[in-house]
Amino acid sequence: DTAVSQTPKYLVTQMGNDKSIKCEQNLGHDTMYWYKQDSKKFLKIMFSYNNKELIINETVPNRFSPKSPDKAHLNLHINSLELGDSAVYFCASSQALGTSPYNEQFFGPGTRLTVL
Amino acid sequence: RKEVEQDPGPFNVPEGATVAFNCTYSNSASQSFFWYRQDCRKEPKLLMSVYSSGNEDGRFTAQLNRASQYISLLIRDSKLSDSATYLCVVNNDYGGSQGNLIFGKGTKLSVKP
Questions:
Q1: DSSP string spanning B8-24?
Q2: pLDDT value for A92
Q3: Do A44 and B103 touch (CB under 8 A)?
């Protein structure tokens, strides 16, 4: 019973292509996130969604577009992929918005994207 | 100054050793602090939250010094299974951007038999 799941686990594609990564959580959480972890291992927030509403967009290029069909899903669509987009993308969810010690974020297993 | 700074390590220690990790953060308005653990090629998982008075969970002790903007994690009696990267995490209260966690680069720990 995976709490936060992502597909695909690995994605290898050519520059210029458009791709999507799917995320689903079965925890009943209200808030979901997308993070990017680059080759230097920094984990940075990209987006968060609370009850299907975009809350944060941390200066991410508009080639990246999150889409949430319902509060259990937050997909990430990427247009015109670039070499610099190669990274591991993690989806996460939490009970609510906010970073209190009682609002743990649960991460999915990650999607390793390689752009050639 | 980076928002969250950690010594990247690696820390190579024998089983049973005590090891301490330090972390500094730049935003004095930060209110929530955490240590996450990330195994190689896996997702980060919450190890423990860090409370103002300091807190302990088994072999792990976390301390917070708000005046110095400094967080620490102490691991006693290290086990082989403690080998991982430990991420210092603080929240970002700039402009009311709730839910925005800032992750350090992590400190790599390798426990040897």
A1: ---EEEETT--EEEEEE
A2: 95
A3: yes
